Structures are given as C-alpha cells and as structure tokens.
Amino acid sequence: MSNLDREASVSVCGGRGFVVAEPVRELLSPRHVKLGESTEVRRLLPNLGRRMVGAWAFVDHYGPDDIADEPGMQVPPHPHMGLQTVSWLHEGEVLHRDSTGSLQTIRPGELGLMTSGRAISHSEESPKSHARYLHGAQLWVALPDGHRHTDPHFEHHATLPTVTAPGLTATLLLGTLDGATSPGTTYSPVVGADLALTRGADVRVPLDPDFEYAVLSMSGDAEVDGVRVLPGSMLYLGCGRTELPLRADSDAGLMLLGGEPFEEELVMWWNFIGRSQEDIAQARADWMNGSRFGEVKGYDGSPLAAPELPPVPLKPRGRVR
C-alpha cells in the first residue's frame, strides 16, 4: 500500500537512543488518511513521538468498510525501496500486481509479503467482483543495510502456522512465537502475529524480553496488559517483557508486532526508506523518469506521481520526533 499524501512528510527513525528498555503502556492514536477515492485508513506508524517498533516502520489499519456498491481499494502503481510490505486481511480481497510480474489475489488469513529491495513498483485494488466488506492492515518492515539492495520479490503464503490456547488463536505472519515459525522471509529479528480472542478469553502470550512490542486493535473489546485498546488504536509496550496478559469482553482481533530495536537510523519519505537525502532524491528521480522501478502491467490507470521533495534537508535523527 502506498503513502498517498501529496505533501509527504519526512520520518526520521531508527537507532536505539529512544527505545524504551522497560515495559510501558503508551497508547497511540491514529491519523486519518485518504487512500485513493474510497478508502480511508488509520495510520498508527509513523506516529507523533513513536516512529518504529523493532523494524516495523509503517502501520495502516482500514475498515471494516461496506464496499458493496463501491470500487473499494484502488491504489495505482507506485514505487517502494528499502522495505517489505505486509498485506493482511480480516475481510475482503486485494488484487496485487507488481513489476516482477506477480499477480495474486490476497484473501483473509493469507500473507502477502513484498520485498522491495533496491526497487519495485506495485498496485493494489479490490477485484471487480468483491465481497461486501473490506477490513485489514498494511504494514512495512524496514530492511537493514546489508539487505536493502536485494532483488525484489513477492511471496504469497495461503497457509500459516498457528498457536492456540483457551480463548486464543495466534496466526504467525512473520517470525517466531511460542515455537511456531512463519514461512515468510525476514531480514532482521521481528515477529508479527494475528491474535483472535473469543469472548471471555483471559490469556498470557509469551514474549522475548529483548524485543520491543506493540499491539494494534483490529476489532472487538479487549484489554492489553490492563489497558483497554479500541479498534484502530495501538498500544506501545516497550521492552523487557516475558509475557503479555490479554483479556476480551467480546470476540476481538489484535495484531502483535515486535522485534529487536532497529539500530540503524533511517530516512523515510513517501514510499521510500533510505539512509540519506541522496538516496531519497535519486529514488524519486528514477521513479519520475521511468527507470529502475519497472512497470506494473495490467492495471487500468496511470501510475502515481511522486510529491515534491520538501525544501529542508532530509536527515536521519532517531526514532522519535
């Protein structure tokens, strides 16, 4: 999914200087962003005061939206660099096309994982014949320096491992949780899991104390470590935890995101993650002149134009504003 802001702001993130080394409960409110003509998303990362959780650098939550009489998601071809996109659905379908030739419909419970590496472009759209509701999350994982120039590729995993406990089913998108490991390719220590809670659930999820964590609420009424987290909000949890208490007063859906604090400082602008002003400026120029990012074939529409670069220098300065 693209950052469609026409006046894209600069996010300076990464580095361990602002990682919270002990458990905390920091509730993050979303920023509402229009995505194309008919989709509005709630942007949780980057957030005022909190730019990353491990290598997770971007989190959008959208829906549930009634698109029975609407085109649904329509995101034209756009570029990415230096990151992985993670597509996750609770309802609906998204048709993915990219410049490597991938064409894949992603459905609920299936992982769509695109590694941009040095450069890729893709589009996302609701199929012409689609389900009534669209509900999901789009996330980015920053690539470490040793892998940010890797070859672009796309993975689709229709079946993912699960961990179960009374009242809980945890589906592994990325990384390892309680002995289960996702088939999705990762380039730094991260974990991403969908947590489905049934009404009355009262469970504890094992965590790695060296990771920092956050929980995104997708649906329902749940408490995370005693904090009520409403759908469309996210609770940052810091590091130093060996387990996470969860309670649900109704059926609820959460996403657990975590990873080792990302050491490198980054510059994130529009749909690019780089390390310097020069990285970003070159990527923008390459996209606008039609080189490097390839062509998305089959999408009915024109590619997105990049916003203008801001008049101030782009400098990586750390994890928080």
Automatic annotation (TrEMBL):
<dbReference type="InterPro" id="IPR012093">
    <property type="entry name" value="Pirin"/>
</dbReference>
<dbReference type="InterPro" id="IPR003829">
    <property type="entry name" value="Pirin_N_dom"/>
</dbReference>
<dbReference type="InterPro" id="IPR008778">
    <property type="entry name" value="Pirin_C_dom"/>
</dbReference>
<feature type="domain" description="Pirin C-terminal">
    <location>
        <begin position="193"/>
        <end position="293"/>
    </location>
</feature>
<dbReference type="Pfam" id="PF02678">
    <property type="entry name" value="Pirin"/>
</dbReference>
<dbReference type="InterPro" id="IPR014710">
    <property type="entry name" value="RmlC-like_jellyroll"/>
</dbReference>
<dbReference type="Pfam" id="PF05726">
    <property type="entry name" value="Pirin_C"/>
</dbReference>
<comment type="similarity">
    <text>Belongs to the pirin family.</text>
</comment>
<protein>
    <submittedName>
        <fullName>Pirin family protein</fullName>
    </submittedName>
</protein>
<feature type="domain" description="Pirin N-terminal">
    <location>
        <begin position="41"/>
        <end position="141"/>
    </location>
</feature>
<dbReference type="InterPro" id="IPR011051">
    <property type="entry name" value="RmlC_Cupin_sf"/>
</dbReference>
